[in-house]
Write a structure and sequence with these properties.
Length: about 80
Amino acid sequence: MRALVADCAGVVAVPDVFAVVVGPSMLIVDGDVVFDDDLDVPDVEAVIVGAAARLRRRWPAIAYVYLNPVAAARSRSSRTG
């Protein structure tokens, strides 16, 4: 999944991604994505939509995709809130 998202134009890095099985044939994908600084908000949105579509084509069981734009890699264990 990381490689598929990382291969999208405008993506600099995918520091964190994981999938959660929530049913017999249902997955939720969540990940952090570092985007090229030259992209504006509509461009970032388009990349996220495209990446979600690519993920669903490869794994049809994916029900929800949450790709969060982040400034740089950060571990989940260091997050607060």
